[in-house]
Structures are given as structure tokens and as C-alpha cells.
Amino acid sequence: MSWPVQRARDPGGLVLLGINLYVSSILPPPVERPEVPYTFFREQAGAGNVKEVTSQADEVQGEFRRPVKFPPNGPGEAVTPFRTVRPAFADDQLLDLLIEKVNARPIDAGRPLWQTLLIGFGPNLLLVGVFLLIARRAAAAARWRARRW
């Protein structure tokens, strides 16, 4: 007895897979921010070399206006984006300094929610859709064989 061979006539799964791969390839990766000491950041902010700052709790991220070599006297690289942690005991009127000399705003949490959902759940939904498509085709083939006999 030979089983009927069915070919896939619905390229929807492949199209969805292609769209998912394309969208995930065009999204920019998160920016790598080297960590600098808080005192170094404070000196640069006082000198007016900090372009913008984002902060959440004690974590501070930002960009220098001009690339700065860190460590200054070592074999370090010139950095523009940075991150640092403000010590809990620091009482140095940092907020006043930042308001005066820097574009300060809330910390960037990363990708927007819709991008995170698309990247996180997109492949899973595509896989479930392919499984459902296969199950539907198998059920149709079983009905066809049942009608035949």
C-alpha cells in the first residue's frame, strides 16, 4: 500500500520566517558602554565634556562630547559612551551640575516593548503555526484515506 505524497502548497510559514529573520537582522544591537569610575565621570561633567546623561537609581549612563582616553595614563582606548555607578554616600550636588551643563534624562531601558515581544515571541509563534499547519494537513490526509477505504 502506498501513501499519498502531499507537497506544501502554502508558503505562509516560510514567508513569516523570512519576515522574522529580516526584522531581527535590521534591529540595532544595544550599545556597549565601558565602565568608568564615578570620579572620572564627575571630572568630565565639571569640564563640560558630558553630552548627555541617563540615570536610574545609582546607575548613570551617557556620552562624552569628545572621546576621552580611559584610563588617562594607561593603555586604554578613547571612549564616547560610558556607564558608571554613583556611590550611595556621594553628596556632591550632582543633579545641579547635570542640570547646568548636561542634557539629563531618564535612563534608556533598551528596545521598545513591541520589538522585545516580536523578537521574543515571534519565533515561538511561527513554530506553533508551523506545527498547526502540519497537524491540519495530517488530519486532512487521514480524512482522505478514511473516505477512500
Task: Tell me what the structure shows.
The chain is an alpha+beta fold. The chain has helices spanning 12-26, 38-46, 94-101, 113-148; strands spanning 50-56, 59-70, 77-85, 103-106. A four-stranded mixed sheet has the order 3-2-1-4, with helices on one face. Strand 1 and strand 2 (59-70) form a beta hairpin. The protein starts with 11 loop residues before the first helix and ends with a helix.
Assess the beta-strand content as a share of residues. Answer: 15-25%
Look up the CATH topology of the largest domain. Answer: Signal recognition particle alu RNA binding heterodimer, srp9/1
Total number of helical segments?
4
Nearest-integer average pLDDT: 76
Rg estimate, integer Å? 27 Å
User: Structurally, how many domains make up the residues?
Assistant: 2
Summary of the model, kept short:
The protein has 149 residues and is of the alpha+beta class. Helix content is 46%, strand content 21%.
Q: Helix and strand layout, with pairings?
A:
Layout: H1 12-26, H2 38-46, E1 50-56, E2 59-70, E3 77-85, H3 94-101, E4 103-106, H4 113-148
Parallel strand pairs: 1-4
Antiparallel strand pairs: 1-2, 2-3
Helix pairs in contact: 1-4
